[in-house]
């Protein structure tokens, strides 16, 4: 039923995407502006990018952000995947309702509340604020996003594959790594990507939980944005957008080729029967 | 032996994430509630603890008697806070409505697109979701400010003579929220409409139903679960939004996230900001429960 993709449908899709992409496109274009005045076009230049790499504060913040992102995304993926397994595989255990509540609530929880409450936790147990507090905070909220992504893959998973492996004598752990993980891997990878970008992106929770020496890039950008729009910030933002876009495209291409291969293998298996 | 190992593994799969969320998500809320009942103090941390579990149960009962609800009384007495709550809810509600008005036609258009372009369209909706929130809000400053691109264009087109003041008003906040949260609205509606059986519409039209009636009688009701999920995904975080009202709104834009932030970072009043957080959470408990139920139901039906 695709024959009547009406004019109204096409127009709303085009307008919707124009709304979503124009602001970003303008920002990217103006990062190549020669002039310091961001609203006046004065010719093409990449000088603001050069300026960036000489800005030590910005470089330090970028390094902190990258480290927080890598560590928190990795732990969030492990915890989120186990949470997804717990939710889909074990439908009955004590406190399951509370557990699923704790998995879904952070998805919509206003960031100011999450940030404030985690900070108060760290202060009350006297945990020095810095790199690790930001990382712990990021693990906590991004593991819930990972859990939802992985869970949606797990519910459509054919469990008879696991049962077959266990009937043949594989332990639950072996079954997970040999059977389950390879099948849900695309979802786990997109979960990791999502956790990484959420961490890369976060301003509010990081501002609450961070301490001296652990200024993240969004915190740095925020403090400069408050002073006004500058071509340097446009340049930082463009680099971040480019990094994320490339990452998303690579994972989706990898997922697609994996999917194609899997389908071919399945067909071969059926044909050989 | 294997059964034992399997039992241990299944316990661990549940216990590890459970404990993590308990310690880093639930316990912190308890601490927020506790501090919201404490008196402010000029020290670090800037509050005197309301009670200490070290004194045992007897001490606890004693402490409960001394709990100070001053912070909450303070919140109800000062019109600033009440206005901030009301205006947050209003701004979030209006923005959610606009997001729905823009998001629904987009999602509908995507769902009816030919199979070959649909994955690309889906990816294009998800992509902005991956790019930084802060960056996307920042991008609008350059567009909306008085000498910004929107005004330049409108003046060049001859629509207006003097620049419109949009930045630092509530209008800019609406634009910011609609723009930032649009993918959250589009994705659930799209996934509801994508699964729809369009032969239903053909059947209705064959039976003489005009297209618009068919839309309201068939397509729209089928999209309702997606619409509810999308609205909750937009409304709940928008109520507590900080970045958008701070960067795009003006000094007159009152939103509770901003109030909490300034109580905390500028006034360094931790007990009051905790009380603000507790009340915000109480206001959002009902929509959050709705959201959680909708999520659980969606996962259940996917099985």
From TrEMBL, chain A:
Localization terms from the record: Cell membrane
SUPFAM superfamilies: MetI-like
Chief localization: membrane
Sorted UniProt keywords: Cell membrane, Membrane, Transmembrane, Transmembrane helix, Transport
Gene3D superfamilies xrefs: MetI-like
Alphabetized PROSITE patterns for the sequence: ABC_TM1
Domain ABC transmembrane type-1: 62-254
Protein family membership: Belongs to the binding-protein-dependent transport system permease family. CysTW subfamily.
Name of the protein this chain belongs to: ABC-type spermidine/putrescine transport system permease subunit II
Organism (species): Hoeflea marina
TrEMBL record, chain B:
Membrane-spanning segments: 12-37, 84-108, 120-141, 172-193, 214-239, 270-291
Domain ABC transmembrane type-1: 85-291
InterPro entries assigned: MetI-like, MetI-like_sf
Topological type in the membrane: Multi-pass membrane protein
Record has Transmembrane as a keyword: yes
Localization in the cell: Cell membrane
Annotated keywords: Cell membrane, Membrane, Transmembrane, Transmembrane helix, Transport
Pfam (any one): BPD_transp_1
SUPFAM superfamilies found in the cross-reference section: MetI-like (SSF161098)
Nucleotide-binding is among the record's keywords: no
GO terms for biological process, alphabetical: transmembrane transport
Gene3D superfamilies, per the entry: MetI-like
Highest taxon of source: Bacteria
GO cellular component, one term: plasma membrane
Chief location category: membrane
Family to which this protein belongs: Belongs to the binding-protein-dependent transport system permease family. CysTW subfamily.
Record's protein name: ABC-type spermidine/putrescine transport system permease subunit I
